[in-house]
Design brief:
Mean pLDDT: 87
Strand content: 35-45%
Oligomer: single chain
Shape: globular
Helix content: 10-25%
Radius of gyration: 24 Å
Distance between the termini: 48 Å
Number of helices: 8
Low-confidence stretches: 1-10, 192-196
Largest sheet: 18 strands, antiparallel, barrel
Length: about 575
């Protein structure tokens, strides 16, 4: 044991001694990342510094891309485009080749010397950026006295040590009263595990009850990162990841709570190869108080290739596995082997998933993207049995259109998502595509279809309007039979039939969702938000008729808008 620890220390010192300058990652934020995506579409050719289909992005890579946009005299930019460009560059100013402006007004000559940082220290050996995090929302639901509110406060810290080791940490404490449909989802975990009061919130994980209907939770993310050589970046910590070009991901999304992971990104021009080894959680119904949660693991790799100037293809593979002894199987540490082969080699019942994603940018206005995720493939079932329950796959297709009808900064997006029954489920909780009882892919799990429409319009520098519309249909279980929508269940147990399965079987639930939001950036990363939302969830067979009308106002500092579109 002592020899192993000594070996790890020596390897760690070797890596740091030979590490090169590197940066942290920009936190996942749909509004923020859309601006970067928009520049790539407008430019008319794909990036080689980083591939937009794998998120989050490194700050240094984003700045390198933005600096090249600013220097490109052939790309027409209007006043709002230049404003967004400066905003993004200011947010990661330490990596910019050109000096970004200092604040016109500081606080006591020490704080907010840069618009993006409350406080910073920068010298040849140390780089530190500290900012507060605050969020406040007030509103009402269904024009009643059932008020909605949220209050959060915390801190975000990032930096570098000796230009070799980067670090990031974020922590907030939040109390909130969410709409009824969010509370229903959060409390549904108690139906799965009635013997233990588990509460789950999308993107957050476990929460505690607060007051009568409120929630109290802490969010914490953090990691370290370094480059042993220029082409390889290693990141180790606790956070989420996202693979895909859409609003949703059928491969790996940010819907689940953060998890422990080791990420290795290899960048070789047109090729980007990403490895993820993740430590995840699996609840059981017999879990008692002060008993550790069961551990499960995921090994994921994704190869992204730019074919020409405008077309990208990605190949994905994941292996979900766990053992009763809670030990990580070291066979899956191999970064370049085919996991399905390892599964057969080990004689295991682990769960292998394969995926493919593509993106095609064209006419400097459009981007077409798609994903296909295959959970199981048996030739006899796919080609010999109509409607076989073993046809487990998910599909996505979408189009983005920037400057719609020639209107500057009006961007539209349309997206279709679907997953056949029993997709993402497996024999046990150790091997289903779930972490902490939250789906690792789409919020609806399986046995559904969904259509999304998103509009973003920025008429002035600081004001942006967002509109989101979705329509979905999902088949749920209301009896003991397993109709394939519950990805926590053993997909071979209690299934009503092996053939004749179809999307929406079981008891259908139809959801219509409309959301309009206006955001005004008063200061750098300080937003004032106003929102109207209408949601209708209907299922006559399940006696469900939940209508939600809400109006909220609020402000947020250094935080993304909290997405609850489901």
């Amino acid at each position: 044991m002592q020899f192993r620890i000594y070996t790890l220390i020596v390897c760690w010192c070797f890596f740091l001694q030979n590490a090169v300058a590197q940066s942290q990652y920009i936190p996942l934020n749909d509004d923020y990342y859309h601006l970067i995506d928009r520049y790539e579409i407008r430019r008319g050719r794909l990036n080689e510094d980083f591939h937009i289909g794998v998120k989050p992005f490194q700050r240094s890579a984003v700045i390198s891309f933005l600096d090249s946009i600013k220097a490109d005299r052939t790309m027409p930019l209007n006043d709002i485009d230049f404003f967004n460009l400066d905003y993004l560059r200011q947010d990661s100013w330490e990596w910019s080749a050109d000096q970004t402006p200092m604040s016109k007004k500081t606080l006591w000559k020490r704080f907010y010397r840069k618009p993006s940082d409350f406080y910073y220290v920068q010298n040849k050996n140390f780089d530190l950026h500290l900012s507060p995090v605050t969020h406040l929302i007030l509103g009402s639901e269904n024009n009643s006295k059932d008020y909605l509110w949220l209050t959060a406060r915390g801190v975000e810290l990032r930096g570098n040590i000796g230009k070799k080791l980067g670090f990031y940490t974020y922590v907030t404490d939040t109390q909130a009263m969410f709409p009824q449909y969010v509370r229903n989802f959060t409390l549904s975990a108690r139906e799965i595990y009635p013997s233990f009061p588990v509460y789950l919130l999308p993107g957050e994980g476990n929460v505690k009850s607060f007051s009568t209907k409120g929630m109290d939770f802490m969010s914490a993310r953090g990691y370290i990162t370094f480059n042993p050589i220029k082409q390889i970046n290693i990141q180790f910590g606790h956070d989420r990841n996202f693979i895909g070009n859409g609003y949703r991901s059928m491969i790996l999304s940010d819907w689940s709570s953060p998890y422990l992971f080791l990420r290795m990104t290899t960048q070789l021009g047109k090729f980007q190869y990403t490895n993820l080894w993740c430590g995840m959680l699996y609840y059981t119904d017999n879990r008692g108080k002060d008993v550790p949660i069961n551990k499960k693991y995921a090994a994921i790799h994704h190869l992204s290739i730019n074919l020409g100037r405008n077309f990208n293809i990605g190949i994905f593979e994941a292996e979900m596995f766990g053992r009763d002894n809670k030990v990580f199987d070291p066979h899956y540490l191999n970064p370049i082997i085919f996991y399905r082969y390892l599964e057969n080699y080990l004689g295991s019942a682990d769960n292998a998933l394969l995926g493919l994603d593509i993106k095609w940018n064209f006419l400097k206005r459009f981007s077409f993207y798609s994903q296909f995720m295959l959970d199981e493939f048996k030739t006899s079932d796919y080609f010999g049995k109509k409607g076989s329950m073993n046809k487990k796959y998910a599909f996505q297709a979408g189009v983005k259109h920037v400057d719609f009808l020639g209107i500057p900064n009006l961007d539209l997006q349309v997206e279709l998502n679907l997953a056949r029954p029993y997709t993402y489920s497996h024999f046990t909780g150790y091997t289903n595509y779930v972490h902490n009882d939250l789906s690792l892919a789409h919020p609806l799990g399986a046995n559904f279809w969904e259509v999304l429409g998103i509009a973003r319009y920025q008429p002035t520098r600081r004001l942006t309007f967002y509109g989101t519309f979705s329509r979905s249909n999902k088949g749920i279980d209301i009896d003991e039979r397993n109709w394939g929508g519950n990805i926590y269940r053993d997909y071979l147990k209690d299934a009503p039939r092996e053939t004749g399965t179809y999307i929406g079987q079981g008891t259908p639930v139809d959801v219509t969702f409309s959301d309009v939001r206006a955001s005004y950036m008063l200061k750098h990363n300080f937003f004032i938000d106003g929102r109207l939302m209408f949601r209708n969830q209907v299922s006559p067979a399940a006696s469900i008729n939940l209508k939600t009308n809400l109006a909220t106002v609020g402000f947020r500092l250094n935080l993304p808008h909290r997405q609850q579109v489901f």
